Structures are given as C-alpha cells and as structure tokens.
Please model this.
Amino acid sequence: MPVTSWNIDPAHSSVLFIARHMVVARVHGRFERVSGVLRVDAELPTQGEVEVSADTASIYTGSPDRDTHLRSPDFLDVEGAPKLTFRSTGLEPTGGSGFRLLGELTIRNVTKPVVFEARHTATSKDPWGSTRLIYTAKGIINRSDFGIRWNKTLDNGGWLVGEKVDVELDIQAVPAAS
Model:
C-alpha cells in the first residue's frame, strides 16, 4: 500500500504527563485539545512520519488553580506559546511492533530533540467500518530544557516541582479525507 495521511482523532487520543510534586507525589495531567497527522503505509505501521500538536491552554490536572498557574509565563506561557508540537525526524525499529520515535518537541517556542519509545498497538476497524491506526509513545523530558524553570525550595531541601516530566501519547488515527 502507498503512504497515506491519517488524521489524529482528538476524541480518542491524548497527550498525558506526570510531574513530581514535593519530591514524592506525582501530578497527572493532560492536554484536552490535540490534533495532528500521520503519514504512513497501513501495511508498514512502524514506518512513517507524525506531527502532533496540543493547545497549551487546554492543560488539565484536576486543579483549577494549578491549571491557571501552569498556563502562566512561569510554565507554559499560553499567550506567547499557544501550542506545543512534536514532529518526527526518524524511526528506529526495535523489534515487532516497537520502535524509537525520534523527533523535535517544541514547548514555549523552544525546540529540542527527544526520543520516545513507541509501539503500534493495533490496526482495527471501528463499528462504522473506518480503519484506525493505534499507537502509544512514552518518553521523559527535562522541563528546564524548554525554559520552564519556576520552582520553590522545600524545607527538606527538595524542590516543589521536579525537573523530569514523563510524557505519554495515546494516538488513534483515521484516514484523512481525500
């Protein structure tokens, strides 16, 4: 089959993150507005290209006050950087349905190379007969690499917000309209 375009289904896809809070606690969050495109041959689902975008204003952690702070210039600066984006630059097969997804991640208008451990989890038909490509990808970024340096020192000498952030993408894509 030829390489075709597949649109990320925003209702069934997510960009998730986990950050350490007060050294030991973990804060889970997500971006509620996600879009993007995959260019892939459905017969070779571990080869191709991907572009993913998330609206930074759509960040959600379950705490309105924290979400407001995360939208501020201390963190995501949604006024100056309304989107975070990932664009693949290469794939390295790791066996079976797994691969390393190499790319460039842009947060706060700062672009850095990243690597995600990815997997094509399924090619499936939905109940309406449309084919779906389903992927997961996980990686760890350092938030200060993207200019996100706000923090507070705790009495125990630790930091309020951890430097490392776990990132996970769960993607379902459907054929783009011709």
